[in-house]
Amino acid sequence: MVTQLEYARKGTITAIMEEVARKEGMAPEMMRELISQGKIVIIKNHQNGSAPVGVGKGLRTKVNASIGTSSDIISEELEVRKAVVAQKEGADTLMDLSVGGDIDAIRRRVIASVDIPVGNVPLYQAFCEARKRYKRHRFHGRTLRH
Questions:
Q1: Among the listed residues 71, 99, 94, the one whose alpha carbon sits nearest the alpha carbon of residue 83
Q2: What backbone phi and psi angles, to 5 degrees, belong to 46?
Q3: Per-residue DSSP letter, 21
């Protein structure tokens, strides 16, 4: 898959660049140039068909909402409700910071419930998977627990 950065560096203005430029009130050629310089990025979730969002130099400030489970409070329904409310209240993007429960299932439900880009922190996922796999092992004198 060719990225927007690769298109921009080849001098191509894509439909996605044009859409973001229009929303931001910027000339498409300026959008392409700033993307090619790494000063603007376009984020978009292809899984949920979210509208592309431009972030960077010369663009309007975006609102990111953070949601996520903890090891103590795990509710897919609650995370979906938080995501839907965040979008309804004007969040441009969403970050899932879940560290408890079936975070893959939670993320899939959240992505399916909103049409804004959803991100996550891969290190949190790695931590959760390591905690499940090694929960009975001791590290630095401490037992990992759920």
A1: 94
A2: -75, -25
A3: H
Tokens of 5: 């950065």
Alpha-carbon span 102 to 87, nearest angstrom: 23
Q: pLDDT, tens digit, for every residue of 72-123?
A: 999 999 999 999 999 999 999 999 999 988 999 999 999 999 999 999 999 9
Give span(s): CATH 3.30.110, the chain. Answer: 64-143
CA triple 5-90-18, angle to 5 deg: 30
Asked if 85 and 92 touch (Cβ cutoff 8 Å), the reply is no
Task: Please say whether the beta carbons of 99 and 126 come within 8 A.
Answer: no
Distance CA 67, CA 79 (A): 6
Q: Quick one: which of 41, 36, 68 has its CA closest to 52?
A: 41
Q: Dihedral of CA 33/37/39/45: which sign?
A: positive
Cβ(74)–Cβ(101) below 8 Å: yes
Tokens coding 61? 């400030």
**CATH topology (fold) of 64-143:** Translation Initiation Factor IF3 (3.30.110)
